[in-house]
Design a protein that fits this description.
Layout: H1 6-18, H2 21-28, H3 32-46, E1 51-53, E2 58-60, H4 62-90, E3 94-100, H5 102-119, E4 123-129, E5 143-147, E6 155-159, E7 164-170, H6 172-177, E8 193-195, E9 206-210, E10 213-217, E11 223-225, H7 228-236, E12 242-245, H8 246-254, E13 259-261, E14 268-269, E15 272-277, H9 284-293
Parallel strand pairs: 3-4, 3-5, 8-11
Antiparallel strand pairs: 1-2, 5-15, 6-15, 7-12, 7-13, 7-14, 9-10
Helix pairs in contact: 1-2, 1-3, 1-4, 5-9
């Protein structure tokens, strides 16, 4: 029997169980005439009568009873599976894959998402620590985390942290041997800890701004890294001056292990954002992650 006739079988099962075309039509959301036409067509194809109709009731014939016993429970199983799928849709479950940097993973993502893991045991979070500008669609990530100014315009971007500033820092030991820079241009006379950009492959050009005046400075030094944490470690060891987002170094600044320099040349910019494709249909698990990470300024 063609797949298009499955509706006719469902109609038959419902009528046989309800014993009424009227009640079956109301349950199925179709007209009585549509049911009558479907049953006539089914009986014609099978060349056997399935239902006995009287003015007061409808009951299956012997052949109809046999068909009902054979297929009725199958439709019950299908309905149960569809209900189970609906429950999965409404209950957060499955894997959410996020690409991000190491520091934001430890300072924002894990602390905010830990409650989600406890409350939703069927949710799995997978993190890809990567400083490159990953194509989250091609690489099959659900979302990524970047600074707001670097996110493509066709993405939905949700702030997950406050605005940030860059911070130029060096250790007290380094500054004991070298005069603190007063302007960004003074950095050219210092041993600076450079960062190689993961996408272009070039060295990061340190950029500054004060009172609308912008400066780009190409610095030099003996150390080059491609991630932030080694830059912090090198600065703590007194090996030079480095420039990083302030959240990477503020704990060390507050503890006196690093000294902040040129602070008036480092304006605020958009902080970390969770971003994902605008055409993405969010699953309950992904929606739960977004809600947990969404940042709002406290009064």
């Amino acid at each position: 029997m063609a797949r298009g006739n499955l509706n006719d079988l469902l109609y038959f099962v419902t009528i046989a169980r309800e014993g009424s075309f009227t009640r079956a039509a109301a349950q199925l959301g179709v007209t009585q005439s549509a049911l009558s036409q479907a049953i006539r067509g089914l009986e014609a194809r099978l060349q056997i009568r399935l239902l006995t109709r009287t003015t007061r009731s409808v009951s299956p014939t012997a052949a109809g009873e046999r068909l009902l016993n054979a297929i009725g429970h199958r439709f019950d199983e299908i309905a149960s599976e569809l209900d189970a799928l609906t429950e999965l849709r409404d209950k957060p479950s499955g894997t959410v894959r996020i690409t991000c940097g190491d520091n934001v993973l430890h300072t924002i993502l894990l602390p905010r998402l830990a409650p989600v893991l406890r409350e939703c045991p069927d949710v799995t979070l997978e993190f890809d620590v990567n400083y490159g500008l990953r194509d989250i669609v091609a690489d099959r990530f659900d979302a990524g985390v970047r600074l707001g100014s670097t996110i493509d315009k066709d993405m939905i971007a949700i702030p997950i942290g406050p605005p940030l500033r860059m911070a130029v820092v060096a250790s007290p030991a380094y500054l004991a041997q070298h005069p603190a820079p007063r302007t960004p241009h003074d950095l050219t006379a210092h041993s600076c800890i450079n960062q190689r950009m993961p996408t272009s492959g070039g060295l990061y050009v340190w950029d500054f701004e004060r009172k609308g005046r912008k400066l780009n400075v190409r610095v030099d030094g003996q150390l080059i890294f491609n991630t932030a944490q080694p830059q912090v470690d090198a600065a703590l060891a007194g090996l030079g001056v480095t420039l990083l987002p302030e959240d990477e170094v503020m704990a060390h600044v507050e503890a006196g292990r690093l000294v902040r320099l040129l602070e008036d040349w480092c304006p605020a910019f958009a902080g970390y954002h969770l971003y994902y494709p605008s055409r993405r249909q969010p699953s309950p698990a992904f929606a739960r992650v977004v809600d947990a990470l969404r940042f709002s300024e406290k009064p």
